[in-house]
Amino acid sequence: MRRLQHWGAVAIFVGPFLGMLLLFQYVPVLRMLWDSLWDFALLNPDKRSFVGLQNYIDMFDDPDRRQAFLVTFGFAVGVVCTVIPVSFLVAVYLNGQLPARAIVRTVVFLPVVTSAVVIATMWVFLFDPTNGLVNSAFALVGLPRMAFLTSKMQALPSIIFMMLWQQTGFATVLFLSGLQGIPGDLEDAARVDGCSAWQRLRHVVIPLLSRTTVFVVVIMTVFSLQAFAPALIMTGGGPEGTTNFIAFDIYELAFSLQQPGLASAESTVFMLLVLGISLAQMRLLRTRWNY
Amino acid sequence: MIRLAAAALLATAVAAPAWAGQRSAPTADCPQGVLTLSLLKPQNNPPTPVMIAAWEAANKCMKVELNEVPFGQLADKISVLAASGSPPDIVMFDGPNTQTYAAAGVLLPLDKYFPPGLKDDMVAATLTEHTYEGKVYSPGTQQASLALFYNADMLAPLGITPPRDLDHAWTWPEAVAAMQKCQKGEGDNVSVWGLAPSRFGNATPGFVYRDMLFLRTFGDPKAPPESSLYKTYWGISPDGKTAQGWLNTPEAVEGAKFFSDLFNTYKITPKAGIPNAFQDGKACFTIDVSYFVAGLVAANLPFKWGVTPLPYAKAPIVHTGSITLGVMAKSKNPDEAAKFVIDVSTGKIAEDYNRAARALPAMKSISAKMEELQVYPLNIFNEEVARWGHPRPPSSHFAQYDKVVTDALRDIAYGADPKTRLDAAARTVQPLLAR
What we know:
The complex is a heterodimer of chains A (291) and B (435). Chain A has 291 residues and is mainly α. Chain A is built from 13 helices and two strands, in the order αββαααααααααααα. A two-stranded antiparallel sheet of chain A has the order 1-2. In chain A, strand 1 and strand 2 (44-50) form a beta hairpin. Chain B has 435 residues and is of the alpha/beta class. Chain B has two domains: 19-143 and 321-390, D-Maltodextrin-Binding Protein, domain 2 (3-Layer(aba) Sandwich); 146-319 and 397-433, Periplasmic binding protein-like II (D-Maltodextrin-Binding Protein, domain 2). Chain B has 19 helices and 13 strands. In chain B, the strands form four sheets. In chain B, strands 1, 2, 3, 4 and 12 form a five-stranded mixed β-sheet that branches. In chain B, strands 8-9-7-10 form a four-stranded mixed β-sheet. In chain B, a hairpin with a 2-residue loop joins strand 5 (131-132) and strand 6 (135-136). Classes of the chains: A mainly alpha (291), B alpha/beta (435). Chains A and B meet through helix 1 and helix 12 of A and helix 1, helix 3, helix 18 and helix 19 of B.
């Protein structure tokens, strides 16, 4: 009887969430896989024809889709390669005894709790080629004005910079918690052995932070691969597709171009790639240390 | 408890949004109850609260519940709702999408609801745009065309007097010369732009309604049908299935090059939006629709302004078509929804709206009553529709064409090679049109 009550309680507490997970995550994934085999329009989904794997073939043949994949993975690499070192340095600073730490911590973390839409809208104004604050600052120090979001060479780096500004706070907090978890006696022992500050950082702190680093790398990669608001609000995927992130491309294919079958095929491939990348990252960056 | 939780979960999952029209319990005045029709419309567009209130006053047992979305999200919202089981009864959509929605079975043909004479009363351009395979899907709320607004106080000291009639309309080189002369500052320090940035769509360059005209005006409707001049003017084949060889002709590339030059060579218009650039005196000229007049009058601007016909290159052209009301095919109240659409698109409600908004009527009978349409500045818009007006390239896949061409024109404004980009656009849109 107790056993039955136990499972009853489990069902009550876990059941609704499990049900919602199935309903809103796994059933749509199955539906997406099914839809990727059909050609139809969202306006008239009942009129559809079975095309097998043709959507997948079309996707790989289409230069616009290939560009979307390249842009998205380039963006993810750019974000990870900038956010990780910057947030690590900020975390090291915040972990020390230097002044104004509380203010810096608040300032750095503030963008994390701001809506992605608000941030994207704000940076549209900041990056305005004519009246933007960034160009005004450039003009003050004698630098030429930049086109930013209207230039195919500058649009993606501009959005990477915005993401750096937005995500540094979150990564910093994670690194900070990792730094504070490192036992002090390990650093003390290194100091007694005559290690310099750089050597302690290089040979003690960074290796012991590897578990946190893996987590931050995976999280930042996933965040970057999910990027949607910057393309929707800031660039519309342009100029010339240079900010056409996959999530935005899928949205445009399904809703604007009325090709949900192709969008489902792209989603499926993207999902598998992200899964593979996350697994690879966790394997390659797995910790060899424990404390 | 488990059953309760499961039931609650199921109820949450299957609960549909209250889109479909609903009928209340019977009352003394309304023995069949009060029917609430649902209406999806873009923000800041008709039907206005005044129009709805007037209709509700005349139809005591019916109410209209509004759901508004930003204009840029309207088409996506309609796509999603069309596939759902409970779409709104009535939808305000962009007229050029009529064929797209009609072909997909999203809209209900309204011919059988039209009172005698209504079809004949529709302005020719409106009837053409709202007809698909012989059936009419909307009577039309308004027509629209673009003209060039100017800041008269800025032009007067420069000795520039823009023409006020279509027969003496500027060519684009003449207009560009005036814009260059009027612009204040250059390079990084422009305080007054020659031409204001587009406020259409998402306020970036490229919106087909405005910017595809730069291509089409380099064509010629009187040229032989097999010529590229002719194809440039139409932008798509007559059956709406071919863009290759129509969108990317040498003349269209020439037009796209000219469009690019406005941003990159003459540098008389900015690539990024400036809200209210014309009203704030930050631009000498702006391209806008007739109901922009109402906004300028209401704003009581501290400068004199005027309107001149839209400039042209080889053949004058303006795009007709505007947002319009239709009934969703899946509406559970088609008769009542059709009555609403026809009532607010015709007669006194439409006349009052057209007058107040300074919008061009979609009904000839209303046009005849609006003497202001024969008087400057609205006469320019009115004559443009009659003499230069053509729909945006008609196709049952216009929505896709619109998206692809808008993106291409935006890239061209930002500096992409016109020929390469138009070729890419034609290659992208061709299979979509042929589906």
